[in-house]
Specification:
About 40% of the residues lie in helices and about 15% in strands. With about 375 residues, it is an alpha/beta fold.
Amino acid sequence: MKSWSTSIANKIAAVAALTVLSVLPVIGAASTTQSQGQSQAQSQAQSQGLYLPTAQQPAPAFPFLQGALKTQADDAWGFYQKTIGQPLSTWAAAEIAPKAGGTVFYPFSGPDFVTVAHAFPNADRYVMVAMQAAGAPVTLATMPAARVQGFQSKFIREWMKFSRLAFFRTDDLNEDQRDQFAPIGVTTILSTFALYSGFDVMEIYPIVYDEKTEDFIKSETGPWKSVRLVLSKAGKPVTLDYVSLDLSDASLSKNEPMRKWLAREASNPVLIKAASHLLQETYFSILRDILVAHATMVVQDETGLNYSYFAQIGPVDLYGGFLYPHELFNRKKQESLAQAYRESKNVKPLPFAFSYNKTNERRSVQIVRRQN
């Protein structure tokens, strides 16, 4: 990782620490009795998808957590749904009004499938891009007992953290990539989000870029750097592609096939969230220009495209409030966005915390639609 990555990771760690402290009392109030936890767990179990069902085992057990830890995970998911997931779904249906079918592109996503699935619930295909390698899905049956315990303890800790933050910390993801004892892996998180979102996970396999088709295809031999999840929901097939790719200019300037692939994927609705303001840096100008030239719609928070570029795509709708970035980022970033919020007479409310800033007056989303 380049020096800018280390700096950003440290900033996100601090952002996350502050945010966790701000919501811990609420979490405690949300799980006051054992009966409440059992009720939440039963409700979550009824709505979860199936993991790699077969004719011999049509309803396999949840693959990654067991017993009390699974109940904790269910309760954390219930808290996330109540505070962010359901408000996001309701808001998205009215304000994004996504069309059924098609592809949604989510750069700088990390393993955050849950946000894009809530914002665009009826897409046929999701394309997520981030730096970290996907890794093979965890299989507890082949793990020694000590590694199972280490994995599950780590998994529930990160799961609880996401339920509070609604984004992943870059340093946590990178640390997990280095873990040789009990790594979680991006693929395991993607699968868990899919299951909790009601998708059946039918297949998982590594994918590689194919020069003939100019797209990512199934690889029989690996590596597990990029991955495809073949999903199903209510009988409808859905594809989730996670591509591990360095999106900086230093990488893309030397990789014409990836620039062409990104331009094609960007010609769809785009989601940008908790992206560390990277697209506002000069060393991410290639992807920035691709998005401005090709995106049909962009839904983002203040960490996405600079407003001066964002507004070039089309008319902008503003939601929530924006004064300046989180204190750990350069206060001068997005000054044009702050001005737009001050001058607009039609800023709409945002009934949930979407990214780093959690307070009502500072959490923000912007939507732009290209005019044909």
